[in-house]
Amino acid sequence: MKRKKSPLAVDRFYKVDSRFRRVWAVSQIASALAVRESAVAMGMTDRQILREVELPLAMPSIVAGLRIATVATIGTATIAAAIGGGGLGVFIFRGISMVDTPTVLAGAVPAALMAVIADEGLEWASRKLSPA
Question: Residue 91, exposed/middle/buried by CB under 10 A (0-12, 13-18, 19+)?
Fold first, then answer.
C-alpha cells in the first residue's frame, strides 16, 4: 500500500509552522527567565517570586489546559453509556439504534451546551486571572 504524498504547499506550511512554534517557545522561555531574574534582582524571596511573578504568568497556560481537559471529559462522558454508565449518552446511543434524530439530539444538544458553557466559563476565568 503506497502512501499518498501531500501537496508541496502543505508540506512547506507545516515545516514553517513548526519552526515558528519553536522560535516562539524559545523566546517565551527567554522572556520568562528575564522576568524571574528581574524579580531576584528586586530582592524577592522564592515564595514571592512564585506567588507574584511565576504563577500569574503561567495562569493562562494552566487554565487553557483545564479548558481542554474539561471539554474533552464532557465529550467523552457521553460514551460511558456504551458500557452501561448512563448519562446523556444513553439518549444518543438509543437514538442511533432506533434511527431517531430527535432522541439523538435529546442527548447531544445538552452535552454540547454543557461543553460550550464550561469552555466559555473557563475562558472568562482565564481572562480574569491573566496579568495583562
Answer: buried
Q: What pTM value is reported for the model?
A: 0.66
Work out the angle between the directed axes of helices 101-129 and 55-77 (0-180°, nearest 10).
170
Q: Are 126 and 64 in contact (CB under 8 A)?
A: yes
Percent of the chain with pLDDT over 90: 32
d(CA 121, CA 105) in angstroms, rounded, equals 23
CA 42 – CA 48 distance, rounded (Å): 11
49-91 pLDDT per residue, tens: 888 888 888 888 888 889 999 999 998 888 888 888 888 889 9
The cell numbers describing 2, all together, are 503506497
